[in-house]
Prior knowledge:
single chain, globular, five-stranded mixed beta sheet, 321 residues, alpha/beta
Amino acid sequence: MTRVAAVDIGTNSTRLLVADIDDGRVEDVEREARVTRLGEGVDKRRRLLPLPIARVRNTLSDYRRTLERLGAERTLAIATSAIRDAENGEAFLGEIEWSYGFSTRLLSGHDEALMTYRGVTCGRPLAAGTVIVDIGGGSTELVAGSADGVRWHDSLDIGSVRLTERFLHTDPPTDDELRACASAVRALLSERVPDDIRTQTTAAIGVAGTVTSITALSLGLEEYDRDRVHGATLTAADLEQQLQRLASVPAKTRAELRPLDPDRAPVIVAGAVIARETLSFFELPALEISERDILDGAALAAADLPQTDEGAAPPGAYTCC
């Protein structure tokens, strides 16, 4: 058994998982997530901005303390869409490795899809005809697979932050903005998903913060309950109901809805549009929700890292701007 830490530096959130890995099984020790919006402005400027960088660094300082306290032997930090798209992304990732002592990995869209598949399927089989839908802040990964492995996958540049910045400029968004957002999602799905994958898909598993948050709202939870959300079913009708509810009010009002993370309120509508259009594209009645996702895949990858002496904390591990 190996105790590891995985850090997911995403476009909208930065997450930590400390877990014990035993024979391919992931046993949670602690999970944390914070909305840090690293991808703010990246779609337009192609650069990581100073304030989002500071939010991520402050979060990583806290995560470093947590994983040390819990005795993680190896840490892998993965970076996805925002860092992939930004001109200064790789330089920032190098600073993360130097400052906090984490092993880092910049994932391509291909890598991201495969690591998501690995995380979702750890400890469970995947039925044939299933597509995994991972709606992130900057991109959405689609993975079609079965118990035998991945059949097809793709990473699409449609995410909750990216589409909010492109289309949803009014608060709350107008009907025209919502239609334009939905049209962009449908067009990209039609362009990129092969016909045989579309017609042979019979079930979908949704992962990541957009669908887990919408599911918690649909369940009427007062406090977010990971155990209630994991394995729940989000029907197309429930998804549409929550989308209309979220899109009809300004972000300030959305932020007061329990158990939605207030920091997710500005971008949750675009994420819900992606989820709705994806279900509609595959003509599916519902999503199964999984709390196992790319972060679990990163934990398994961390266990594969060579053992090294951790040594003293790096110079920037507990400080930031």
